[in-house]
């Protein structure tokens, strides 16, 4: 003895089975296409990071090699330096 609910369910399954087959035809190709796109984006990201690291390394080396040697001599503004503020008043006249 079948109930009315089960007959309706069987009817619905029979009706939707043909339409679902059409929808699933290109599903696998679409999934693999998206996987390939994701892998390509990951490779492009890695390549960008590597390029930035190489550029930063070259910039650091070039900046270090070409930087002029800075001479640290006494300046007129040493009076305003934190070192001078910390020295006692009688030593300031000796240091300049």
Features of this protein?
mainly alpha; elongated; 96 residues; 76% helix; 0% strand
Distance between the termini: 113 Å
User: Helix segment count?
Assistant: 4
DSSP strand (E) fraction? under 5%
- Kindly state the percentage of residues in helix: over 70%
Largest sheet: none
User: In total, how many beta strands?
Assistant: 0
Structural class category? mainly alpha
**Which H/E pattern describes the elements?**
HHHH
**Rg (CA only):** 38 Å
Mean pLDDT: 76
C-alpha geometry = elongated
Uncertain spans = none
How would you describe the overall organization of this protein?
The protein is mainly alpha-helical. The chain has helices at residues 4-24, 27-66, 82-86, 89-95. The mean pLDDT is 76.
Reconstruct the topology from this structure.
Elements: H1 4-24, H2 27-66, H3 82-86, H4 89-95
TL;DR of this structure?
This protein is mainly α. It has helices at residues 4-24, 27-66, 82-86, 89-95. The chain contains four helices and no strands.
């Amino acid at each position: 003895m079948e109930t009315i609910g089960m007959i309706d369910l069987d009817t619905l399954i029979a009706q939707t089975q043909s339409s679902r087959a059409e929808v699933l035809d290109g599903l696998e190709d679409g999934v693999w296409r998206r996987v390939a796109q994701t892998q390509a984006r990951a490779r492009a990201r890695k390549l960008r990071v590597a390029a930035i690291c190489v550029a930063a390394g070259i910039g650091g080396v070039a900046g270090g090699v070409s930087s002029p040697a800075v001479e640290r001599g006494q300046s007129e503004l040493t009076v305003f330096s934190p070192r001078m503020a910390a020295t006692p008043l009688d030593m300031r006249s000796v240091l300049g």
